[in-house]
Design brief:
The complex is a heterodimer of chains A (about 325) and B (about 260). Chain A has about 325 residues and is of the alpha/beta class. In chain A, about 30% of the residues lie in helices and about 30% in strands. Chain A contains nine helices and 18 strands. In chain A, the strands form four sheets. In chain A, strands 7-11-6-1-4-5-12 form a seven-stranded parallel beta sheet, sandwiched between helices. In chain A, α8 links the parallel β16 and β17. In chain A, α6 packs parallel to α9. The longest helix of chain A has 16 residues. Chain B has a nine-stranded mixed beta sheet with strand order 9-8-7-10-6-1-4-5-11, sandwiched between helices. In chain B, α2 crosses α5 and α3 packs across α4. The radius of gyration of chain B is 22 Å and the shape is globular. The termini of chain B are far apart. The chains are: A alpha/beta (about 325), B alpha/beta (about 260). At the A-B interface, α5, β7, β9, β10 and β13 of A face α3, α4, β7, β8 and β9 of B.
């Protein structure tokens, strides 16, 4: 297994488009495959897979394996695991790259258990070294960067963080291969409904700008200030653990050790002290701006621009300023 | 209804971490805590027990010191604990951890297996799915709400757009996210009682697992080395009137080509 120098991407769909992270991974897969003298391919499961194949070919896939069975949309994890493990057994790719989403992590877990494959999660860099794949991931809250590799020649599973790699076009001729999965008869988890929550719409992991609020907001209603500033930027709303634990905003917004790890272009922290548990979730942001009334707040020791002052005044004025400069 | 909650002992998030000569976490050098996500799993287990009866058992794979972690869960109210510990387990990867937990679970009685969504140390989120696969069970992951009725479990599963409603027949593996509940603090009485509760210790031999399948020998990945990332440099710090401050932030963003 895993002898051919072919690198796959397990590409998740968002409607009929590949998710943004799938294109980031596709570009990286192509680069790795070229360094190993091989090629890149994608696996897409679900309604819309054929349409999505085109974008994946544009980003470097020589072959796109598709299956459009509707059970991919109404059964959790197991049909995807069946389809992917069948394909891996047949084709033995060198590696499969997954995006660090809930669904992809679940599928990787089942397939790696079933086929006995090694998994390295949370990857932020992947290099080819001779015939080995070296994977870098932050460990223990980013205090260490660990380089690991695989101990056998089986297909290697790598789960990568969003925005670890840039998506670039590497056009290949579109070649679609239809897959006919063999499904196992094990009991299933069925998706019986989907409920949209408008507040969950902007994905923190994909956002270019994040405005986050913490305990310094003082009261739950002051989260409106953060939301208004986020609106001015068309940004996502984040929060510290303190704000979530106080019930001011829901858990999906939490950034940090027990929340999300984010890497936006700009992270604006309002009334967040910057304790280590928060820092580890946002320290790789390109630019960090902090507004806090306490000049000794730890966040000022790593913010690119620290503003000592009253956020209740500064945040609305900043929102106004941003709207003005954006000409809106 | 019998519930098993899988728990792990992890290094305290605030502690300075270093790797030993074998490139493994020097666990003796740090304080340990129960994986914070597992507290939600224990709480959910106790609530399911309150509603449906049965037993809540805790299952942990770790070093001898993980008994403290189990005692904490017992103090919260779980009935008994099982610790799988063996020198040969050191250096186990996610595959081996899932495999060992699954073999232990085969010797326990369960309708619901609960896990935290991930750990705060390795954080791969691979164990709930791996355990489900090894046991041939369905999995309900990233649950923000759990209900059990008529021999099936129904959860609200976090999605990009909100949540999905997902159901599966028992027995089932469920992983829970933070915020699903408010974990209780152990009472003094709970802490006293926990000392007398049953805590079994199982070795690899007890589970019929050969040493070369797990630990460093069985690991499908290996660490080559590590570095400490350069700390983020301190930037400028300003203290101005509010309007000036807002203007300076906007100017800064223009300079950085974000606006």
């Amino acid at each position: 297994m895993g002898t051919a120098n072919v690198i796959w991407v397990y590409a998740e769909l968002s409607g009929k488009e590949p998710k943004k992270i799938a294109l980031e991974l596709m570009t990286k897969a192509r680069e790795l495959a070229e360094a190993m003298g091989g090629s890149a391919a994608a696996v897409v499961l679900g309604t819309g897979a054929r349409t999505a194949a085109e974008k994946l070919a544009q980003h470097g896939a020589s072959v796109v394996y598709v299956a459009e069975d509707e059970r991919f949309g109404n059964v959790l994890t197991t049909p995807h695991a069946d389809a992917l493990s069948g394909l891996i057994k047949e084709k033995s790719p060198r590696a499969v790259l997954f995006g660090a989403t809930n669904s992809s992590k679940d599928i990787a877990a089942r397939v790696s258990a079933r086929l006995g494959l090694g998994v390295i999660a949370d990857a932020i860099a992947i290099q080819v070294n001779g015939n080995e794949l070296h994977v870098v991931n932050p460990a223990f809250g980013g205090s260490l960067l660990v380089t690991s590799t695989f101990t056998d020649a089986n297909t290697a599973f790598i789960i990568a963080r969003a925005k670890a790699f840039a998506a670039e076009e590497r056009p290949q001729p579109l070649k679609i291969e239809e897959v006919k999965p063999v499904y196992t008869a094990a009991p299933q988890a069925r998706i019986t409904g989907a409920v949209a929550q408008p507040e969950a719409r902007v994905s923190l992991e994909e956002a270019n700008v994040i405005v986050s609020g913490g305990r310094g907001l003082g009261a739950p209603e002051n989260f409106k200030l953060v939301e208004e500033l986020a609106q001015a930027f068309e940004a996502a709303v984040g929060a510290s653990r303190a704000a979530v634990d106080a019930g001011w905003i829901s858990y999906p917004h939490q950034v940090g050790q027990t929340g999300k790890t984010v890497k936006p272009k700009v992270y604006i922290a309002c009334g967040i002290s910057g304790a280590i548990q928060h820092k580890v979730g946002m320290q790789t942001s390109d630019i960090i701006i902090a507004i806090n009334k306490d000049p000794d707040a730890p966040i000022f020791s790593f913010a690119d621009l620290g503003v000592v002052g009253d956020l209740h005044q500064i945040v609305p004025l900043l929102a106004k300023e941003i709207r003005k400069r954006k000409g809106a | 209804m019998n519930i098993v909650v899988c728990v792990k002992q992890v290094p305290d998030t605030t502690a300075e971490k270093r790797l030993d000569a074998n490139l493994r976490l020097d666990r003796a050098s740090v304080d340990n805590i129960i994986n914070p996500f597992d507290e939600y799993a224990i709480e959910e287990g106790l609530r399911l027990q309150e509603a449906h009866g049965g037993e809540v058992a805790l299952l942990c794979m770790g070093t001898e010191s993980a008994q403290e972690t189990l005692r904490k869960g017992l103090a919260m109210g779980a009935d008994r604990g099982v610790l799988v510990t063996d020198p040969a387990l050191a250096g186990s990867d996610a595959w081996a951890t899932s495999y060992v937990l699954a073999q232990a679970l085969k010797r326990m009685s369960y309708d619901v297996i609960l896990c935290g969504m991930q750990t705060t140390d390795s954080g791969t989120a691979q164990v709930p799915g791996g355990v489900a696969e090894f046991l041939g069970l369905p999995q309900l992951t990233w649950a923000n709400k759990v209900e059990i009725s008529d021999g099936k479990a129904t959860i609200q599963r976090q999605s990009d757009a909100g949540y999905d409603v997902v159901e599966a027949p028992l027995p089932v593996v469920i992983s829970v996210i933070k915020g699903i509940n408010e974990p209780r603090y152990p009472s003094l009485k709970g802490i006293m009682q926990a000392r007398r509760k049953e805590l079994q210790i199982w070795s690899l031999d007890d589970l019929g697992i050969s040493q070369d399948m797990v630990g460093v020998l069985g690991a499908k990945t290996k660490v080559l080395g590590y570095s400490r990332p350069a700390p983020r440099a301190k930037g400028q710090l300003i203290q101005e009137d509010s309007q000036t401050a807002a203007t300076r932030i906007a100017d800064f963003l223009v300079q950085a080509r974000v606006l």
